[in-house]
Specification:
By secondary structure, the chain is mainly α. It has one domain (4-80): Helix Hairpins. Helices cover 76% and strands 0% of the residues. The protein contains six helices and no strands. The chain has helices spanning 4-16, 25-32, 34-54, 57-77, 82-92, 97-103. Helix 1 (4-16) crosses helix 4 (57-77) and helix 3 packs antiparallel against helix 4. Belongs to the PRA-PH family. InterPro entries: HisE (IPR008179), PRib-ATP_PPHydrolase-like (IPR021130). It is found in: Cytoplasm. One of its GO terms (cellular component) is cytoplasm.
Length: 107
């Protein structure tokens, strides 16, 4: 098992773009638009938080997978992909979290 699954998923999500809502759950989300996608991310984030509070590792992983999936849907909808996020994480790597946060402050 490798991080390549993120790229395979990204390819699958791209392939859903031309499909109709009755052919694919993802196509249905794309058709409903950004608000529906963001609502799903919010729901999945809440479920992830509740799973973490519950402390069951299997449930945490299950809910996190749902959250990541829907975040990947958002990226694809916005014509972005996992490489965009990985590049940003790489840029931040080795930078103190406090320094990185301070660099985002607006005067």
């Amino acid at each position: 098992m490798t991080a390549n699954i993120l790229f395979k998923l990204a390819d699958a999500l791209e392939a859903r773009k031309p499909q109709t809502p009755d052919q694919s759950y993802v196509a249905k989300l794309y058709t409903k638009g950004i608000d529906a996608i963001l609502k799903k991310i919010g729901e999945e984030a809440t479920e992830t938080v509740l799973a973490a509070k519950g402390g069951d590792p299997e449930q945490i992983v299950y809910e996190m997978a749902d959250l990541w999936f829907h975040c990947m849907v958002l990226l694809a909808y916005q014509d972005l992909g996992p490489m965009d996020v990985l590049k940003e994480l790489e840029r931040r790597f080795g930078v103190s979290g406090l320094e990185e946060k301070a660099s985002r402050r607006e005067d």
